[in-house]
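The instructor's notes for this session suggest beginning with a concrete chain rather than abstract definitions. Hand out the sequence below and ask the class to guess, before any prediction is shown, which regions might be ordered.
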Amino acid sequence: MDRRRGPSVRLRLTLSYAGFLMLAGVLLLAAVWLFLLRYVPVRALIIPGSTGGTTNGVFPVRSNLLHVFAPRAAAVLAFLLVFGLVGGWLLAGRMLAPLSRLTDATRLASTGSLSHRVRLPGRKDEFRELADAFDTMLARLQAHVSEQRRFAANASHELRTPLAISKAVLDVARADPDRDVDEVFDRLSAVNTRAIELTEALLLLSRAEQRSFAREDVDLSLVAEEAAETLLPLAEKRGVTIETLGGITPTTGSHALLLQLVTNLLHNAIVHNLPEQGVVWVSTDVRPDSGAVLTVENTGGPVDPEPATTLTEPFQRGTGRAHGDHAGVGLGLAIVRSITQAHDGTLTLTPRPAGGLRITVELSAPDPHSAD
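After discussion, reveal the predicted structure:
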């Protein structure tokens, strides 16, 4: 927005300080004058050599008093004006110095430099709180921008892979006219399906991050059962048993997104499990301190604690993860994290001592007054 430049805040504060000081000086001098006129005895106003203590002699004495008092009052007001302007200018500059540092940091941030921090010294006050909040905002913004850049780079790489494979298949088919056409079509269909799944996952991730969904009452236990029934054929194919446990677990949010959350967790637990006789445990519970809780555990190989914390990053895959027909596109847990954050919940990944992973999602319980 283009604005006309006005007086600076420092100048306005200076004029305010000087004006207030002048007003206080005028009121003080007026009080002194009234004190001299009303509360000093009349005989104290008579100048030596006058006609005496008669009332008629008071008026000339008061006139002389005003003649003596007025120049000195004017001199005092002039001194207060100069003192107020100079002192107000210095005081305003000192008070606004932190604001100048905040302005400089904001200008740097507007140019794209997010690494700068104000780090305002001194004790805690309004300016320090503002500076600390600004530094926190810059830190989060820098982390978010870095994450988005990594995500864009990874997404570009992942989207380029099926396109490169399709081009290679077509080039081979063109160079070998006798090649089986059905085989080429099957490979192209598989690559195209993977590209579609990746695109849909990216769109779902964007929708979750934007929180563009309506909230409704959801029973998390029913969502878990629905997801388990959907993935039961995949579990049977891989020799994995799914065990569900839990009663009614109410929460609020998007039924579709929460179903996607549980489905991704179950899919991840089934695919990254033991080669045979694997188990997946799905439980829901209501806790007074945290609300609705969903826990998904699976058997499997040992998982290091440090890599486990990075599994929710987009396109991050654990060591030894399969890249087969149901390996996914590397966005399953990233989508789970985004959906959890969109529902103001918390996501915790903990390696199991016996192998495998325990994933806990804590969501808020419905507001009992929301239906009123």
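Then share the key points. The chain has three domains: 9-113, 150-210, 216-363. DSSP finds nine helices and seven strands in the chain.
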